[in-house]
Amino acid sequence: MRPASRVLKAENYEWKGVEKKAYKENSSLFRDVRRFTLLGNQIPELNFETRYFEIGPGGYSSLEHHRHPHAVVVIRGSGSVILDNEIFSISAHDVVYIAPETIHQFHADNQQHLGFLCVVDRYRDKPAIPDDAEVESRITSENVLNKIKK
What we know:
By secondary structure, the protein is mainly beta. It has one domain: Jelly Rolls, CATH 2.60.120. The chain is built from two helices and nine strands. The protein has helices spanning 132-138, 142-147; strands at residues 10-11, 14-15, 31-39, 48-60, 70-83, 86-91, 95-98, 104-107, 114-121. Strands 3, 4, 5, 6, 7, 8 and 9 form a seven-stranded antiparallel beta sheet that branches. The longest helix is centred in the C-terminal third of the chain and has 7 residues, at 132-138. It is globular.
């Protein structure tokens, strides 16, 4: 039997019946990140997952890259995102495309929460954390190197 259509009611950037999950296992790679899987594995007909991430003021996601692309829509606050050798300011309703193998990291660096929806393939590779040698060989921007949190 297929799952019924539904609405997930939100209140204060949390969804009824959706548990907050650990962002990653190694907490030394990020700071103050919450994660919710809104739609995905519980609905077999979907070949993607829709997740919500929220980074607290001064926090940041892990520095990583993947073989799969991401689609990100900012829905709360503002901050910045590193995409390889560039830093972009982002705010509510901005859309970010992260191409495969792009080193990326989100920062809530404007003294406010940064919340975004992230849509990815259901079946995808795990994040790869670049080591110092990979960062040095791929990132040439001093601004980016100074901003990266590892």
